[in-house]
Amino acid sequence: MSSQTKAISRKAWAAHCEGTRDNRCSRVFFSVVTLGVVDDARARQLARLPEGERPPTPRRALSMAKAKAYQAAADAPSTLRAYATDLANFKAWCETNGLRPMPATAETVGAYLAAAGLGYAMPTLRRRVAAIARAHRIALHPLDTKHPAIRETLRGIARTHGEPGRRSAALTTAEIKRLVGVCGDDLAGVRDRALLLVGFAGALRRSELVAIDVDHLRSTSGGIRLMIPRSKTDASGAGAEIGIMSGADEATCPVRALRTWLKLAEIADGPVFRRVTHAGTVGSRRLHPDAVRQILRRRAAAAGVKGTLMEPITPHGMRAGFVTTAYKNGVPDEEIMGHTRHRSLTTMRGYIRRAKLGKASPSGKLGL
Fold this sequence. Notes:
DNA polymerase, domain 1, 6% strand
């Protein structure tokens, strides 16, 4: 066997071991490679195989490793990070209470939920159940999340301690004007003005906002066309294109603000929204999604735009504010959904119901 073939075989076997439930063999593999005793490691790995099972061929092992990688990519990185935190919390609780986290019984998961019930919101608890169930599926230990020990515990927590979930305060045109009004003429101010106006006019999620590249923009007679290659509800990467029209007021025109930022920052390609240093230089890397939250909070504090405990100021408020403002201005549901790319009419109308409270509440027709 040639040295090149041996190298491929070693990589394939390591990839296969990495994908198994017990990845101790993969750790052994990489530790012994550094010592140059691959043959001994391979012998030990072969010994761990069930009786009668043959090791995979290099091609098959690589294919299996790729399949595992694609399975991991089925969820967004933020979801995987949340799942990892949830699983660590569950494992720590099990170890403290002398219970086995893997495979766990439905009764164990129910007890865990009961212990955490008063301190966490229902969406958080449901996500933790999803994380535990996903880990069990991967380990080939299916967990019945509809078991009464889990489902009825969640229902009981909701009934006993349930409270309305927090929703982002809708940032309508009035709030957006106040926010951009405190953005100065320095590079950071010019960037933030463009970021806020484009985010609001495009009804963009913060991940979509920071993902914009110059190549995604195309000028039109009335404004710009923005290509969104991928989004939260577009896991398959089909992409979507929306129009952002020029505003009547130069001070709040998203197209003008964006073009001004690109010109002053001398950005001709690559990421549109980038870091601006204290020295006034523009970086080459795109902003992190959390930077949008920090920028919004900073500008909101300067502008005196305040949220509440139940409706805090968050980047999602720009998206909620777009729907609210568009509805109040008579834009039809289908046009709003086409722009926001909501897949659920129910979700989109949740913002509209909030808008109706201030526009056409029945309490205003009681003759009081």
